[in-house]
Amino acid sequence: MTRVVYVIGSVPSTGASTQAMTSYLPEEIKWGHRFERLVTNQREDGKYLFDYTQFNNTVPVDTPPLSGEDLHKALIEQLEENGHDTSNETVV
After folding, report:
1. Are 13 and 39 in contact (CB under 8 A)?
2. Number of separate domains in the chain
3. Measured distance CA(21)–CA(6) in Å, rounded
């Protein structure tokens, strides 16, 4: 099954909107990774530098090994094991 990602954003300096859409196969999705930064403004002349050699490269980030739903369930279970009544609470 293919996953489709649709991103809408704006350019802060101009306020112009931008859109992008792409699709990924399940084996291409990496949990706990983010895309490499492509843009830096560290040049002496103050201009932005785009490094397209990093395009599609990912780097690992500190991410729980569980999905958001599973992490929520584990937290509720931990609270209940410690004697907390979670029947009227929302844990986020």
Report:
1. no
2. 1
3. 4
- Please say whether the beta carbons of 52 and 38 come within 8 A: yes
Flag whether 88 is in a domain: no
Q: Is the dihedral of CA 18, 22, 26, 32 positive or negative?
A: negative
User: Is 89 contained in some domain?
Assistant: no
Query: Angle CA(60)–CA(29)–CA(74) in degrees, nearest 5?
Result: 75
- Model confidence, pTM: 0.51
> Tens digit of pLDDT for each residue in 3-23?
777 778 887 788 888 888 888
Give me the domain span that covers residue 22: 3-81
